[in-house]
Specification:
Layout: E1 3-8, H1 16-29, E2 33-37, H2 40-46, E3 49-52, H3 79-91, E4 96-101, H4 103-116, E5 120-124, H5 140-161, E6 164-169, H6 176-185, E7 189-191, H7 199-211, E8 217-222, H8 228-239, E9 243-247, H9 259-277, E10 283-288, E11 291-296, H10 299-302, H11 309-319
Parallel strand pairs: 1-2, 1-4, 4-5, 5-10, 6-8, 6-9, 7-8
Antiparallel strand pairs: 2-3, 10-11
Helix pairs in contact: 1-9, 2-3, 3-4, 5-6, 7-8
The structure holds adenosine-5'-diphosphate (ADP) and 6-O-phosphono-beta-D-fructofuranose.
Residues 11, 72, 102, 126-128, 170-172, 223, 253 line the site of 6-O-phosphono-beta-D-fructofuranose.
Length: 320
């Protein structure tokens, strides 16, 4: 193994740069050459590759986003796109690839590996934390802390105006981010796609709370759990309370990665290169119960990651 490539793909996540840095520095330490692919699979298909040096990754460990840029690329879902991507690998003499991204990017990584026979290692990076085979993905902790900071601020105005606030957080079609943030924020309710909720019950509990003097409430709602504006209108109609919606949006995707996001990025980047040097491929690195592990790449989506319902029930106890 003499020459490898590193790619960031899909939704960007804080910590991707720390992962790029770990891949490059580990590879150079072991005498490998490293090529950076720009703009995810789009760049791979179009042959946008550049040599990376120690200096290429200086001063980026603390930066959100990805210096390699990222993109979403429908062509990679088709055989033709995968073939073009393989062609780029062969043309550039690339003998190993590290793909940093979420579950969609890891699906592309698996296809690239199967089509080329070239070792490919996936590093799970997404604010959604919706990748099986790792307890946490790079960026999830940072997004959770960013959202928490925003909710703590919103709580001030909710209290002052005695309003109910629905705060919509990202997470695509899963509730991991909403549950993590809602519990930390002390939200009265957390709405996630995985667990059915009753607006009637929520309204009754809001009215009960108000009778006991709790005149403002925070509801954290995952974007995949429904239409937050519709939920707000319905609660206002049934209770007569002032209800406001705050959609946090893309602020959750940026900012300096937390220590934990950087920790994951560093150990994952190092482990990915170590696996390539050993000639391993078709794997995804992860962390389970504090230990770095490696699963077959397709486990990332076939391993259906479950929401921790015990945490969901705990929030109901702590919020009352
Ligand atoms: P994320 O990796 O953050 O989950 P996406 O789901 O958008 O983001 O996937 C990122 C990119 O990975 C897509 O734009 C596409 O290029 C590639 N990809 C996603 N799903 C597949 C698939 N089933 N087969 C091949 N490539 C895929
Ligand atoms: O996958 C990360 C994510 O931020 C999701 O939480 C969100 O639904 C999606 O990306 C937004 O996609 P885009 O960046 O293409 O608008």
């Amino acid at each position: 193994m003499k020459r490898i490539a590193v790619v960031t793909s899909g939704g960007d996540a804080p910590g991707m740069n720390a992962a790029i840095r770990a891949v490059v520095r580990t590879a150079l330490f072991h005498g490998l050459e490293v090529l950076g692919v720009e703009r995810g699979y789009k760049g791979l298909i179009e042959g946008q590759v550049d040599e990376l040096t120690r200096r290429s990754v200086s001063g980026i460990v603390n930066l959100g986003g990805t210096v390699l840029k990222t993109a979403r690329c429908e062509r990679m879902k088709a055989r033709e796109g995968v073939a073009k991507a393989v062609e780029t690998l062969r043309k550039n003499g690339i003998e190993g690839v590290v793909i940093i991204g979420g579950d969609g990017s890891l699906r592309g990584a698996w296809k690239l590996y199967k089509a080329s026979g070239i070792p490919v290692i996936g590093i799970p990076a997404s604010i959604d934390n919706d990748v099986a085979g790792t307890d946490y993905t790079i960026g999830f902790d940072t997004a959770a802390n960013t959202a928490l900071e925003a909710i703590d601020k919103i709580r001030d105005t909710a209290t002052s105006h005695e309003r109910v606030f629905i705060i919509e957080v990202m997470g695509r079609n899963r509730g991991f981010l909403a549950l993590q943030v809602g519990l930390a924020a002390g939200a009265e309710f957390i709405l996630v796609p995985e667990i059915r909720y009753s607006l009637g019950k929520i309204c009754r509990e809001l009215e009960e709370a108000r009778k006991k003097g709790k005149r403002s409430s925070i509801i954290v709602m995952a974007e995949g759990a429904g239409d937050s504006s519709e939920v707000a209108r319905e609660i206002a109609r049934r209770t007569g309370y002032e209800v406001r919606v705050s959609t946090l949006g893309y602020v959750q995707r940026g900012g300096p990665p937390t220590a934990f996001s950087r920790h994951l990025a560093s150990v994952f980047g190092h482990e990915a290169v170590r696996l390539l040097i050993k000639g391993r491929g078709g794997l995804m690195v992860g962390m389970e119960r504090g230990r770095v592990v490696a699963h077959r790449l397709d486990y990332a989506w076939r391993g259906r990651k479950k929401l921790d319902r015990k945490l969901y029930r705990l929030n109901a106890i702590l919020a009352t």
